[in-house]
Request: fold
Amino acid sequence: MDIRLGNADLARYPFLNEAAEYMSQTYFNLDDLNLPELQHIVERASNRIRNEIIHGKPDYALERHEVEILTFLVGILIIKAINSDNLTKKHSLCEALRAEKFLVQDLKTQGELANKKLLVFKVFKELLKMDVLPSLKYQLMFEVKVTDYLKRSHLFHEQEWKLINRLVHDGRVFLDPDETVRLIRSELANLLFERIRQMNPSHIPTTIREHANILRSILPVAPRRLDNAPSAFPPCINHALDQMAAGENLPHSARVMLATYMLAIGKNIEEIVSLFENAPDYNERISRYQVEHLAGERGSHVRYLVPSCAKLRNDGLCFATSQCEGLINPVQFGRAAKSYSKKASVG
Amino acid sequence: MILTKTGEDLHLLKIAFREFYFNQGNMVEEPPKIRNREFGLMGFDGVMKRHLTFSSLGGLIASLIFETPSDVFASNAQYDFPTLPISEKGWRGAELIFDIDLKDLDMKCIRSHSYARCLSCSSSYVSGSQESCPKCGSNNIAESMLPCDRCVNGLKNEVLKLHRFLTSDIGISPEMIGTYFSGNNGFHVHVQDESFNDLDSRARADLAAYILGVGISADAIGVTKDIRNDFRIRFPIGGLDHGWRKRLSDRLGISVSSQKRLSNLIKDLGGLEQFRKRVAEITRDMGVRIDSQVTTDVHRVFRLPGTLNGKSGLTKILCTDLNSFDPFDESCQLSNREVTVRVTIPKLKLRLKGERFNLNEEYVRVPMFLAVYLISKGLAHAVRLDPGTGRFIVPASTP
Ligand code: SF4
Ligand SMILES: [Zn+2]
Ligand SMILES: [Zn+2]
Reply:
């Protein structure tokens, strides 16, 4: 299947191979980014990233395809120049969320334009190696292969994503546009993350470097990870943090674990609420209420304890490593090891 | 199990098994990409050797003749390095397999054809409702069971149900489904469609739950909680046309054309909670009794088709026509030459390899296939004639 996309379509999906081809056809040179007439693009990309750092939200504005493709590219160059894994993750997630919104729109309007229809399916096919077909039988429903569905649906913990709660027929699962896109959310972010990581620009133009330096200075000092090195957390906590960084909705039990753990190691409510910012269903008011409740500042005024390892194991939240040996509660993680190493250094 | 077999028993079993692999080695099925499979051979001493590889079917059969294992297993997974420990094998996908075992069917008839042998006083009896030895009261009991026709039909029914799920719901074409009699009390259904091979165990668990009929929520057919009116009905897009939605609505006698009917039904049952329970019961009942652990484990070794089952001496064999398939005939592949056994259960009746046997005497001459079957099931012992006296050499009874 070889589809020529209209260039206008590339504005919504600037990460497709076609966009890169388009760039190479225009004989664009990296150092052109230093030209004054391209400064508005550099500004635009830089602002987009600033917005991501400060608000953690993508920018949904849509311009002409030349602008969008270049903005995407410049954004990657800036990210490369800043060289922070956390920011790269955040940026990939935001670009994925952006694409997600356009994908849903395109799926909802499918059928209007044969061309659009093909485009949206191309994103699934080219990037995710997955066939998505409009259902001939049900309006505004899409069909994916049972295997493609199963490979992704286990990331979701809600009942409704269990295969048994889906309309399944003849090897296909039927999904509405939102569900179709939801199915690939974290995958798209991971793919973009990998693409960005593997990209190796020959050099970074000076303008980009300057913008990168400014943006680096506004990066939170101890960013999303709070101020502990990641390895200081037990595996269960790290796993939940990673899932959240990938834009996954955590099950309620995992949120309780995270929040109570962070309270136990002395984080304040502000810090903890900001932790949940990455969640796709983030809603500050609710998050704050929940954390305050767990901290015992609301309702029953009982401070909730961190669930035990046994309970977490039961809930499928435990990802024990050898360092977890003998632990009863995640808060003990690292403590035993520390005192041991002290002894060792004395002896 | 081992405790109940004498040296004489093991000797006879090994002869029979070796003969089989020597004469009928061509029955052993070569798994695709044999070099990338892990093999396991179980000895008659009950010790399993795992992490073995064979580069050809010929090499495997030679080993079977030479080592004469009681059971032969091969991984459904393919590995880059099948002989290394699990974490270093390099997993390259695994066939999807379902196991339907008599133990999961709750057949009422089972007790009536289960036999117990007291390991303290060596007496044997039909299990019935007895928990301990009727003679000496010991609880040290070895049980064995000869499945009856009703059991076999029960199993076949489940297999057919599974076929329907796999073809009409999951979309696997019938030629891609291999159904095997396990050689003892169950069937293995192998999916040969490779697009399922790279599913990990969580994905398989979800598929297994679908087939078992667990985890359904009433929301799937449009019944949701409503704070004021207990429940609310809004039929899903796509209606109740297919899969579980169709099964459920057929069983409940509802359709999208009458919301009222469903609403009344829920009220009659006593509200949303009761309705949810009812729905879960129905799906459990209509689901297939597969052993989901077997399907979910992607590092397992499975009995290799065309090899003997050490628990019966019957062969794991492909059933081309399930309806007419008779496990007590087609899978019985051992020789007819006669040997003597001492039967430990009085008045045993059974059918094997197209013949009926009424075993009324303690010492009887029977064909090898029957001898192996009874010994494997712990219901008889091998006996030799003393060449000098012409009398039976009775083996010392086991502890
Ligand atoms: S053992 Fe305890 S601390 Fe370690 S991962 Fe599991 S739950 Fe967390
Ligand atoms: Zn006894
Ligand atoms: Zn029976």
About this structure: Residues 395-399 of chain B have pLDDT under 50 and may be disordered. The pocket of zinc ion (ligand 2) is lined by residues B 118, 120-121, 123, 133, 135-136, 138 (CB under 6 Å). The first strand of chain B starts at residue 39 and ends at 42. Residues 218-286 of chain B form one domain.
